[in-house]
Amino acid sequence: MSKTRFARYNIGQVIRHRLYAMRGVIFDVDTSFAGTDGEAVDDGTATGLVYRLFAEDDEIPYVACIAENDLEPDESGEPVSHPGIGALFDVGEAGDYRRRRQLMN
């Protein structure tokens, strides 16, 4: 029987890595992550959840897959500058990220 897992963070939420200078906007949540050999592997966290996000650091924007236990909410209120955000999200007046009703290609 599979165990029900609840995500701690939401799609569109701005988060940051708890150890590294990286922050981003969550666009997907997965219960497992495919390793380099193509097999699904548990990431070793208590929940096993992995978040995909449009990320940025001091150098470049990129897409990251980060385990839930390595993330924490970003309370800075600063926008995330990633070229992929506009394809999936509308940015609200308060700087929040809401999924687009119609995705852009």
Short description:
The chain contains one helix and nine strands, in the order βββββββαββ.
Number of domains: 1
Instruction: List the total number of helices.
Output: 1
Helical percentage = under 10%
Largest beta-sheet characterization: 5 strands, antiparallel
What structural class do the secondary elements suggest?
Answer: mainly beta
Report the sheet-strand fraction. 35-45%
- Spans of at least 5 consecutive residues whose pLDDT stays below 50 are 34-46
Span between termini: 38 Å
Shape type: globular
Q: Over all CA atoms, what is the radius of gyration?
A: 14 Å
The counted number of beta strands is 9
Can you write the helix and strand succession as a string?
A: EEEEEEEHEE
Q: State mean pLDDT (0 to 100 scale).
A: 83
Strand order in the sheet with the most strands:
6-5-2-1-7
Core attributes:
globular, 105 residues, 5-stranded antiparallel beta sheet, 1 helix, mainly beta
Structure characterization notes:
The chain has 105 residues and is mostly beta strands. The protein has one domain. Helix content is 4%, strand content 37%. It has one helix and nine strands. The protein has a five-stranded antiparallel β-sheet with strand order 6-5-2-1-7, with no helix packed on it. A two-stranded antiparallel sheet has the order 3-4. The longest helix is centred in the C-terminal third of the chain and has 4 residues. About 12% of the residues have low confidence.
